[in-house]
Design brief:
1 helix; mainly beta; single chain
Length: 76
């Protein structure tokens, strides 16, 4: 999976700065495991927020932060 963590402007991804990581996960990994590993990669362990699952991508918006994280699945 690919993890992108970036700033927002007006609630939308801004990409003034971006942190990217590529992580390997088992195909049968649960959503909880996926989110735990993705959040740990960008330093958001324990941070609460809203999650939108779009099938091949998850969008995570941390509460009270002007940032967003995208988790994308598939071949890199």
């Amino acid at each position: 999976m690919t993890v992108e963590y970036t700033d927002t402007f007006g609630g939308e991804a801004n990409y003034a700065w971006v942190e990217r990581h590529t992580l390997e996960i088992p195909e049968d990994a649960s959503n909880r495991t996926i989110m735990r590993r993705a959040k740990a990669a960008v330093g958001l362990t324990g941070v609460r927020g809203t999650k939108e699952d779009w099938g091949d991508m998850i969008r995570f918006k941390p509460h009270n932060m002007n940032t967003v994280m995208f988790v994308t699945f598939g071949e890199v």
